[in-house]
Design brief:
The chain is mainly alpha-helical and 459 residues long. The protein is built from 20 helices and six strands. The protein binds arginine. The site of arginine has 10 residues, from helix 6.
Length: 459
């Protein structure tokens, strides 16, 4: 039976049910809906709507339902109910009869769904925080285990300057740390209780909204009933955070796909996160990474979709807003899956140190060093840059590295060049010379690693 049948003479059409019913997807809010109902029964009992006995009957029946919901034992598939709110109420009425018909006093599905969704967001933020911490831990472990590996750093996907592999891994640590802090910021903003806002205008019953908020673990109440029932900023924020984090994962995936390619060969991915080809027996494809990259589409799409849905909606609740859920549920699920597989991928990485360093030595990644060396000999940087460019051109013509050119030959470009230039052009030397905070030298990278470990220990 629908919750609103009294005013209607004809039933809903089948197609109306198809477009309108949300139980097929909002059933995931069962735990939150029941939790909210328990708190609401306490609040209306305090307001004099229920006797102590009635409230206790409701609470114990709701607790039974809660256990079933947690165990996945609620039968949604054969239910005729429209949404999770009517499902829970119907189950309660079936169990308790008229007492259960009192539960919806002073409440609307509008403040109820707003509350359920905030509780759901809070629970999921906790799970995703843990997922992010797990990836951070894997990255820190990989950085720690490979502190001495130097590989090319790229700009424009051209070998630019050598960097430590650990520096690369710690760059993603910075990104995921920001994702983590965004989740914390968003939670502080959305962890407020809409309950007691009614359909849109508040309720006539003397509900202690602050106590109700505390009962549900909210830090405060929403202060305007119109806004409380029609605000979905938190859904948008979570979708933005998921999108940004997926973008980070996608860039990491892209880097690793390239590092794993036959052309680069810097890393090997584990068998457990790669797949073979049905035709080409030699293939080992980085599917997990490609899906981390590919799943960005649907997560970004959910953000864009809800922005468009919310745009121009008049206050207060409109059914359009029911469209907030499927995108959110799917995006959070995909983000969760991608964070979990990211851990497995990172843990499976085997570095080929020799290949990384060979590549770092090739491609004239030490050219900046020669220019800086000339600056040290009193040549203005712009001139030093030009001279070095000519040296690189000559080296390319001879298919040699800069350090493979003889001193006599180097001197033809600048008489200031001495024997000491060869030490400067050494890979470890030039990497560790980047001894500035945030740089790729061994000291700043070791500091960054220690800070990351401390940050994880402090969580
Ligand atoms: N299923 C609805 C949603 O998810 C619940 C709120 C319905 N409110 C209403 N007045 N029809 O948005």
């Amino acid at each position: 039976m629908s919750l609103w049948g009294g005013r209607f003479q004809a039933g809903s059409s089948a197609m109306f049910r198809t477009v309108n019913d949300s139980l097929p997807f909002d059933q995931v809010l069962a735990v939150q809906d029941i939790t909210g109902s328990i708190a609401w029964s306490r609040a209306i009992a305090k307001a004099g709507v229920l006797s102590t006995d009635e409230q206790q009957q409701l609470e114990s029946a709701l607790n039974e339902l809660l256990e079933k919901a947690k165990a996945g034992e609620l039968d949604f598939a054969s239910s005729p109910e429209e949404d999770i709110h009517s499902f829970v109420e119907a189950a309660l009425i079936e169990k308790l009869g008229d007492v259960a018909r009192k539960l919806h006093t002073g409440r609307s599905r509008n403040d109820q769904v707003a509350t359920d969704l905030r509780l759901w967001c809070r629970d999921h933020v906790e799970m995703l925080r843990q997922d992010l911490v797990a990836v951070l831990t894997s990255l820190v472990k990989a950085a720690d285990a490979n502190l001495d590996v130097i590989m090319p750093g790229y700009t424009h996907l051209q070998r630019a300057q050598p960097v430590r592999f650990a520096h690369w891994a710690l760059a993603y640590v910075e990104m995921l740390k920001r994702d983590l802090s965004r989740l914390d910021d968003a939670t502080a903003r959305f962890n407020k209780s809409p309950l007691g806002s009614g359909a849109l205008a508040g309720t006539t019953y003397p509900i202690d909204r602050a106590a109700l908020a505390t009962d549900l673990g909210f830090s405060d109440i929403c202060y305007n009933s119109l806004d409380a029932v029609s605000d979905r900023d938190h859904v948008l924020e979570l979708l933005f955070i998921a999108s940004t984090s997926m973008m980070h994962l996608s860039r990491m995936a892209e880097d690793l796909i390239f590092f794993n390619s036959g052309e680069a060969g810097f890393i090997q991915l584990g068998d457990q996160v790669t797949s073979g080809s049905s035709l080409m027996p030699q293939k080992k494809n980085p599917d997990a990474l490609e899906l981390m990259r590919g799943k960005c589409g649907r997560v970004f799409g959910a953000l864009q979709g809800l922005l468009v849905t919310m745009k121009g909606l008049p206050l207060a609740y409109n059914k359009d807003m029911q469209e907030d859920k499927e995108g959110l549920f799917d995006a959070m699920e995909q983000w969760h899956i991608c964070l979990c597989i990211a851990c497995e991928v990172i843990d499976s990485i085997q570095l080929d140190k020799a290949r990384c360093e060979k590549a770092a030595r090739e491609g004239y990644a030490n050219a900046t060093e020669l220019a800086d060396y000339l600056v040290g000999k009193g040549i203005p940087f712009r001139t030093a840059h030009d001279i070095t460019g000519q040296v690189v051109l000559a080296a390319i013509a001879q298919k040699k590295a800069i350090e493979e050119l003889s001193l006599v030959e180097l001197k033809t470009f600048a008489t200031e060049i001495e024997e000491d230039v060869y030490a400067v052009l050494q890979l470890e030397y030039l990497v560790d010379k980047r001894n500035i905070a945030g740089g790729t030298g061994i000291n700043p990278v070791s500091d960054a690693l220690a800070n990351a470990k401390q940050m994880l220990a402090d969580l």
